[in-house]
Amino acid sequence: MTETKSMKEITQEAWNKRPLIISGPCSAETEEQVMETAVQLQRTGKVDVMRAGIWKPRTRPGSFEGIGTKGLPWLQKAKKLTGIPVAIEVATAKQVEDALHFEVDILWIGARTTVNPFSVQEVADALRGVDVPVLIKNPINPDLELWIGAVERVAKAGIRQIGLIHRGFSSYGNTEYRNAPMWHLAIEMKRRHPNMLFINDPSHICGRRDILLDVAQTAIDLDFDGLMIETHVDPDKAWSDAKQQITPEKLGELLNSIRWRKEDVASEEYHTALEKLRQQINQLDDELMQIIGERMKISEKIGKYKKENNITILQTNRWNAILERAFKKGDKLGLSKEFITKYFDAVHMESINHQNQIMNS
Ligand code: PEP
Ligand code: MN
């Protein structure tokens, strides 16, 4: 007789596997959809945990807010069929209770919950004395302290297995992504919790299909431990997040297209470490340029304003104030006065050029 593993053991193995792949629909919609997705995910042979939203915290009312407790037996059934552990989002004590009652294997706290310490505490209190792995998504707003606070609350409740999910941050005016990745924040979070499972969620960062691979690849290059990607048997007809979901088959293709990092062989250790750091530098440089580009756009707006009001471009007082401020800030960050001067001169010149074009157009 072959030995059969318990679901707890299978979940444990999944938790420790690298890369850890979590996939499934944004929302459980119908029993058929859940079962069919489960079968197709299993067929890819690449999915370690199946996700599904049961209660959906939507930003605006009126959109699908989740099937609720009635969907939990569907997940149980899917798990029985495929042997793949299941994960859902919980936001209240009652949801934790229901999830545990229906033997959900992994819970996660969503971005809209992580922002609220009251909610996180309620979930944490409901988890006291329970042995279940918990993933914590970054808060919607780019505030690392909130994310760290949520980890602390859950840890204090006695949860031993805590993982992090980076799903990007809401930022006004951002168009390329649904939620800006702000990789530097993820990198900083990882630096603070070096041994904690760290997953990337390209679906909620991208909000669309065409750049999923790009974001997933960046995450893998930055040494994330795995990915959570939304899949649906008929993505265009999904009841939530239709634009970003892909079929399980497409998920298989996407995972095949990723250049996975080589195992750290002893002789390669140095190069691997160097490569990782260089990736981080590239990422930060990209973000710096993005920010400087945005700064120039604002400066152009000011240029327009000055033109309409017939004011000169250069206003010495303002410039001195900017420099004084930068010296003070720079000093705290370990940046020399010499560097600050050179840097701001360059930015200032570029800014004047942009404004000049506006004034003389
Ligand atoms: C989700 O995973 O479907 C979800 C609601 O994600 P987030 O909390 O990241 O918005
Ligand atoms: Mn979703």
Poorly predicted segments = none
Say which CATH homologous superfamily of the largest domain is assigned: Aldolase class I
Q: For the residues shown, what is the average pLDDT?
A: 93
Kindly name the structural category: alpha/beta
Give the SSE order as H and E letters: HEHEHEHEHHEHEHEHHEHHHH
* Secondary structure: helix percent: 40-55%
The end-to-end distance, rounded to whole angstroms, is: 83 Å
Radius of gyration: 24 Å
> How many discrete domains?
2
Strand content: 5-15%
Enumerate the strands of the largest sheet in spatial order, edge to edge or round the barrel. 1-2-3-4-5-6-7-8
Major sheet, described briefly?
Answer: 8 strands, parallel, barrel
Task: Count the E strands.
Answer: 8
**CATH top-level class of the largest domain:** Alpha Beta
Task: Give a structural overview.
The protein has 2 domains: 7-257, TIM Barrel (Alpha-Beta Barrel), CATH 3.20.20.70; 270-359, Chorismate mutase (Chorismate Mutase Domain, subunit A). It is 52% helix and 9% strand. The protein is built from 14 helices and 8 strands. The chain has helices at residues 7-16, 31-44, 72-82, 93-101, 111-114, 117-127, 144-156, 183-192, 202-206, 212-221, 248-257, 269-309, 316-332, 337-359, and strands at 20-24, 49-51, 86-89, 106-109, 134-137, 162-166, 197-200, 226-230. An 8-stranded parallel β-barrel has the order 1-2-3-4-5-6-7-8, surrounded by 5 helices. Strand 1, helix 2 and strand 2 form a beta-alpha-beta unit. 36% of the residues are buried. The mean pLDDT is 93. Bound molecules: phosphoenolpyruvate (PEP) and manganese (II) ion (MN).
